[in-house]
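agent> Task received from the user: take the single chain below, predict its 3D structure, and emit structure tokens. No templates, no multimer pairing.
agent> Plan: (1) validate residues, (2) run structure prediction, (3) serialize to tokens, (4) report one or two observations.
agent> Step 1 OK, no nonstandard residues flagged.
tool_call: predict_structure(input=
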Amino acid sequence: MNRMLTIAALAATPACAQIPSPTPPPRCEAAVYRQFDFWIGEWDVFNPAGDWIGASAVTREEGGCLLIERWTSAKGNTGQSYNFYDPSRGQWRQVWLSATELTDYAGALNAQGEMMLEGDLQVSGGYGGRSRGTWTSNADGSVRQRFENYDTAKSDWVENFNGLYRKKP
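)
tool_result: status=success, residues=169
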């Protein structure tokens, strides 16, 4: 009870009244924050052969500052990604988390209008190498998502995921 009285008394002092109110967080409304909006939606995901390989839900949250993806594969594996524009770096970032992987990607829209992010893949066994993701918005409203890992022996990128995201009906 004394603590509450002390806080109330302190708040009433002129010095405390001069403390500025906290500034509300920015509302991420600039056009750069909308560059990845083509990925927002409820999706069924198919491989190049047309087989269903999973489902994904991508939502805009935190006042438009964050895109959250929730992924479930056809085998029941899950993961989430947190996607945001980092104005201090002038880049988009994605942090992907699952039971077996963690990757912190960074990048931007390329000249073709594709979101391209690259980062270091961490897997349950340790460092998994360089990884690169590309998201392409298609004219029919679908999104192509590709992931590649850098193969140091070949000095080249090798595709390890190719999914076509189609909006759920």
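agent> Step 4: summary for the user.
The beta strands are 41-46, 52-61, 66-73, 78-86, 91-98, 101-109, 115-123, 126-137, 143-151, 156-167.
agent> Done.
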